[in-house]
Write a structure and sequence with these properties.
It contains 14 helices and seven strands. The chain is an alpha/beta fold and about 375 residues long. The chain has a seven-stranded mixed β-sheet with strand order 3-4-2-5-1-6-7, with helices on both faces. The C terminus is likely disordered.
């Protein structure tokens, strides 16, 4: 160890002599144990030769912003010519009738507003009816009371007079002019009651009566009167006929009949489109009584649709045939509508009611006054 120290010390002395410097102090690190690293601290603290960086700017030429040559925009107006409005050639529209297969197509009631007749501004008058609707040769069937000429030999004449009197009693208490005659099921006699009730009302002096066949599914009322079926209610609702063309007059001066018209496949849609209501309202302004024959109430909804704009409902029931539950069901079809009463049809001649009636008031063959 001592030899190494001595060699190091001698090397330091020679170095100092060459540099003519003051003898350096031997660092204490030389006296440290050999296990520690030998580091020349003086060498570690000597600064490195450092030259500052020279920042020489690059040759710079100032940019010259020279404006581009500007010329003002020249607005040259386009040559203007006034527009010439030349009318298109006009040709009158040609109204050609539609083929029958197109006319028969149904229009949904929800998409159709209530149509207004073309001659709504022209008020229905009795003079126009008598002028435009001449009396026709009706050939009534045997079941018609007054039109067949033998009115006193038939059972039921007095019953219709009684029904007429009761209707006038109701009329004294509230407005009553438009009457709907219906039944629960088909073939219960509603057409028979409608036809004979309208004749009984027209027998009174000065009373004008109009009878409508609104059973558009099975129009049969014209057969009882022995007249034509077309044009009628269905033709009017489809727009193929006006009010005057569907009115018919027979031998009775104050009775006017409107048949059902041509057969159709969509009666409920036509009845519900509002045009029938307009027709009934216009007729009620001229006639004293408006009697409407309708389809049965239980199978279809036509009768309940018509009953909404009528003053009263007469329900015809077939004696000893119509089930009571169906009568109640028919009554429910006309709920919230005024029910005038029930007409019991085809009562047996030997029943207690009929025997008492004719025994007290005379035989059917005796003459009676209206």
């Amino acid at each position: 160890m001592s030899r190494i120290h001595e060699a190091l010390k001698k090397a330091e002395e020679e170095k100092l002599e060459r540099t003519s410097a003051k003898p350096a102090v031997v660092p204490s690190v030389l006296q440290a144990p050999l296990t520690e690293p030998l580091i020349d601290e003086a060498f570690m603290h000597q600064p490195f030769m450092h030259e500052p960086l020279r920042h020489e700017p690059l040759p710079h030429e100032s940019l010259r912003h020279e404006p581009l040559p500007h010329e003002p925009l020249r607005h040259e107006a386009l040559p203007h010519k006034p527009l010439r409005h030349e009318p298109l050639p006009h040709k009158p529209l040609r109204h050609e009738p539609l083929p029958p297969e197109i006319k028969a197509q149904a229009v949904p009631a929800a998409a159709v507003s209530a149509p207004v007749p073309a001659n709504l501004d022209q008020r229905l008058t009795w003079d126009l009816i008598t002028a435009r609707c001449p009396q026709g040769p009706w050939k009534p069937t045997k079941g018609m009371l007054f039109l067949n000429g033998n009115i006193h030999d038939q059972v039921g004449t007095e019953e219709f007079r009684t029904l007429r009197s009761r209707l006038y009693h109701i009329r004294e208490k509230r407005p009553l002019k438009t009457i709907l005659v219906s039944s629960a099921l088909p073939a219960e006699g509603k057409t028979f009651v409608s036809a004979n009730l309208s004749q009984t009302l027209a027998r009174q002096h000065g009373r004008r009566v109009v009878l409508l066949d609104c059973d558009l599914r099975r129009a049969r009322l014209h057969e009882s009167f022995g007249t034509r079926c077309e044009p009628g209610v269905s033709d009017y609702l489809r727009g193929d006929a006006d009010e005057y063309s569907i009115l018919q007059r027979g031998s009775m001066e104050n009775l006017v009949f409107i048949p059902g018209g041509r057969s159709i496949s969509n009666p409920a849609e036509l009845i519900g489109n509002g045009k029938l209501e307009v027709l009934v309202k216009r007729l009620s302004e001229l006639f004293d009584w408006v009697i409407i024959d309708s389809p049965p109430a239980v199978p279809v909804a036509d009768a309940s649709l018509i009953g909404r704009f009528c003053d009263g409902i007469l329900l015809v029931v077939l004696a000893a045939k119509t089930p009571s539950d169906l009568v109640q069901r028919a009554r429910q079809e006309f709920r919230n509508m005024p029910l005038l009463g029930v007409v019991l049809n085809r009562v047996q001649a030997g029943s207690t009611y009929v025997s008492y009636y004719y025994g007290a008031y005379g035989k059917p063959g005796e003459k009676a006054k209206d």
